[in-house]
């Protein structure tokens, strides 16, 4: 049985073959014979965690992540044989952790040497990944994941014979390549005119010295949102601000609210939902600050015509709520993010639904979010991708629905299908009326509209974006505390958070101290409220 790629819910039967250290799978044995392979993974390069009690194996090769389980009907002896077959392709069980540490130390030194070379030579330098330099294997007894969340434990019995393959491209539906459409937006010029900043006070911090390995190794299978991290791993934005970036391309909703055809209107809503992932293409080196309980964030954007407010409404479990409104739409969501580490990759799974209403037509759209995965977290060659199915429904009218597939990358292929997205709009009878596709970091094209066109393309990145956390112009403005709003914001606003402000200014050591102080104050406050029998009441949300 193989875990579905989205959203780690339910299992489906797949045929696996382990040959010369490579694990391949397809729907049936006949597909394997015909060479129709859905995925392949080099076991010798994978970190493996085995839960013998649930007969589950988690394989993380950095570029690919599999969750598989031996069928319950198989006898105990056969299960042992399966584990032994996998073990056969392990490295000699010397200290794998020590090997990884030494490889990372060598890699870090090469990065520093490359940084000291003249700038014109840097583009010729490529740092090796961990997979390039060592093949590690962790014994099952060392990495048994007993601390899985309740949700994951409860769906162990969700077996399914359904053969539809999530996150895999449909046959005959290839990605539309966007090559000729240019952006007309000049955000930097607009920002200068409006007085918003175009650069941050300091460059992004160097976190190559942080021992990510030891932090994550001690928390395999756990929810990382509850693990305190060094501030150097953060970007100077909170999660409340990160969510507001989903509104950067809100003009798509403005268009939708003035599109009479309900099926075309669904296309624009769908592309808006895709545009909210564009930031991720440049943001795989840092994580946002986890908001403290009661923290808020407000963002009034006259240039986009909307107002946004967000609040951290719960700490355990961590829940963030937000709401935005304009003349053309209302947007809200409440989300809980679970970050799971699987050995080489970190998966970010969001629970909760996104909601959008369009006043001109009385529409209320609702959809889930794709899974986000950061691969090769120990390497300087990290990569980030989204995968899974997103389904959009109009709760006030079942005339049409939309299914969007964020296609999971296949590591043995080229970059032609990188970050691929495919979408279809269907009527209530299930007939496809519109198709669109492209990539979430380059643009989306729809050739079934009356005028086939590129519906959306992300704004160009500003100069030296790599030196400023990979921030877009829009992101650079989110934490700006200008005089015209300083006296109007509540003291709980993220912009007043001292550790985040110090990090933005490049004062990492001071930021680390203030972060510890803030977290300790939050713990003390929670203990005091528990002692008094009180519960936190959100300020702006019910």
TrEMBL record:
> Which subcellular locations apply to this protein?
Cytoplasm
Task: Give the span(s) annotated as Disordered.
Answer: 149-184, 483-542
| Residue span(s) of domain Pleckstrin homology | 1-69
Q: Name one GO biological process term.
A: intermembrane lipid transfer
Query: What Gene Ontology terms describe what this protein does at the molecular function level?
Result: cholesterol binding
GO cellular-component term (any): cytosol
Return the protein name: Oxysterol-binding protein
Q: What high-level taxonomic lineage is stated for the organism?
A: Eukaryota, Metazoa, Chordata, Craniata, Vertebrata
Name of the encoding gene: LOC107658001
């Amino acid at each position: 049985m193989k875990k579905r790629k989205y959203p780690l819910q339910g299992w489906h039967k797949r045929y696996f073959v382990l040959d010369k250290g490579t694990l391949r799978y397809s729907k049936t044995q006949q597909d394997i014979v015909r060479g129709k392979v859905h995925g392949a993974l080099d076991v010798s390069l994978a970190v493996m965690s085995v839960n013998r009690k649930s007969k589950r194996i988690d394989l993380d090769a950095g570029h690919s992540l599999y969750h598989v389980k031996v069928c319950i009907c198989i006898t105990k002896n056969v299960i042992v044989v399966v584990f032994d077959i996998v073990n056969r392709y392990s490295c000699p069980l010397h200290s794998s952790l020590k090997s990884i540490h030494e490889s990372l130390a060598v890699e870090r030194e090469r990065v520093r040497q490359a940084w000291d070379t003249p700038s014109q030579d840097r583009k010729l330098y490529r740092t090796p990944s961990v997979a390039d330099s060592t093949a590690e294997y962790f014994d099952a007894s060392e990495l048994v994941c007993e601390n899985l969340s309740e949700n994951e434990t409860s769906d162990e019995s969700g077996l399914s014979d359904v053969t539809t393959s999530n996150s895999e491209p449909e046959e005959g539906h290839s990605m539309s390549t966007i090559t000729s459409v240019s952006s007309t937006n000049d955000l930097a010029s607009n920002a200068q005119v409006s007085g918003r900043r175009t650069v941050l006070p300091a460059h992004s911090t160097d976190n190559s010295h942080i021992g990510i390995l030891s932090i994550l190794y001690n928390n395999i299978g756990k929810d990382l949102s509850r693990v305190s991290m060094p501030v150097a791993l953060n970007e100077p934005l909170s999660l409340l601000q990160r969510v507001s970036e989903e509104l950067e391309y809100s003009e798509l909703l403005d268009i939708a609210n003035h599109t009479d055809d309900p099926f075309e209107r669904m296309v624009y809503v769908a592309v808006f939902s895709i545009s909210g992932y564009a930031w991720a293409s440049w943001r795989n080196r840092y994580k946002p600050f986890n908001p403290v309980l009661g923290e808020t964030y407000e963002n009034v954007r006259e240039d986009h015509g909307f107002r946004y407010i967000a609040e951290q409404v719960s700490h355990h479990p961590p829940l963030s709520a937000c709401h935005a409104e304009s003349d053309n739409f209302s947007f809200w969501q409440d989300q809980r993010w679970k970050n799971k580490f699987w050995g080489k990759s970190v998966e970010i799974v969001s629970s909760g639904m996104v909601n959008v209403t369009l006043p001109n037509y009385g529409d209320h759209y609702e959809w889930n979010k794709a899974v986000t995965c950061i691969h090769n977290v120990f390497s300087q060659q990290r990569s980030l991708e989204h995968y899974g199915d997103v389904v959009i429904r109009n709760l006030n009218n079942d005339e049409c629905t939309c299914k969007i597939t964020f296609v999971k990358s296949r590591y043995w292929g080229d970059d032609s299908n990188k970050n691929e997205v495919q979408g279809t709009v269907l009527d209530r009878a299930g007939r496809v009326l519109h198709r669109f596709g492209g990539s979430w970091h380059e643009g989306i094209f729809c050739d079934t509209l009356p005028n086939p066109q590129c519906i959306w393309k992300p704004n160009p990145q500003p100069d030296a974006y790599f030196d400023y956390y990979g921030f877009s112009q829009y992101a650079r403005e989110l934490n700006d505390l200008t005089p015209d709003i300083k006296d109007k914001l509540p003291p709980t606003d993220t912009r007043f958070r001292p550790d985040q402000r110090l990090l933005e200014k490049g004062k990492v050591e001071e930021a680390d101290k203030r972060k510890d102080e803030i977290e300790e104050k939050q713990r003390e406050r929670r203990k005091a409220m528990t002692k008094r029998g009180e519960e936190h009441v959100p300020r702006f949300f019910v």
